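Design a sequence for this backbone.
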């Protein structure tokens, strides 16, 4: 279990312990239908406090290899669906909260380099038999794993638009566009991605 690669289910578990929790696990069935299809890149644009982050945490708890969420989902609607066990905790998940990364990075110009380095380090730890170059991007690191093992990834990115809202420098913005294009517009990487879920305002 890592911070970025295959996180645990603690965030969603906290949500389910709230005084009021509305079961939205039916969304998992829809995401399962999108997986490994032409519609596997999903972007949700909704106002703040609309439940986007909670949904991302739910998807992470369901897909991530970093936890066992069978009992956590047992009381909810998805558990009775025939697709429930098929994909439960069987995927490599990369989960990124871009707002948190931006706010917690003191030198904004190094935001993407630091984020890439942290994700690559977790991937190298999780896949010790796979070679990672110290200059590999996140996309290249995913390709390294896919080429060596055939394992695919799910990318969950919350508040992907934070750099637009914060009106960052043009250099950082162009670097971020390259980061996103490398992940979501690469035909080479596409077979290695089973699902992407992005949220923004």
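Sequence:
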């Amino acid at each position: 279990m890592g911070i970025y690669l295959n996180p645990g289910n603690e965030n969603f578990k906290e949500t389910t312990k709230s005084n009021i929790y509305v079961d939205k696990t039916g969304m998992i069935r829809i995401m399962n239908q999108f997986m490994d299809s032409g519609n596997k890149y999903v972007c949700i644009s909704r106002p703040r406090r609309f439940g986007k982050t909670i949904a991302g945490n739910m998807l992470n708890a369901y897909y991530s290899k970093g936890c066992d969420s069978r009992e956590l989902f047992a009381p909810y609607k998805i558990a009775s669906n025939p697709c429930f066990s098929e994909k439960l905790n069987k995927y490599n998940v990369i989960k990124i909260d871009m707002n948190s990364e931006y706010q917690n990075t003191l030198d904004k110009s190094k935001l993407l380099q630091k984020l890439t380095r942290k994700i690559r380090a977790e991937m190298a730890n999780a896949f010790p038999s796979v070679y990672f170059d110290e200059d590999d991007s996140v996309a290249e690191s995913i390709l390294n794993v896919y080429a060596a093992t055939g394992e695919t990834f799910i990318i969950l990115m919350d508040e992907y638009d934070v750099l637009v809202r914060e009106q960052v420098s043009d250099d950082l913005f162009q670097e971020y566009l390259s980061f996103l294009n490398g992940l979501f517009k690469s035909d080479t990487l596409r077979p290695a991605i089973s699902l992407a879920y992005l949220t923004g305002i």
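The two ends are 29 Å apart (CA to CA).
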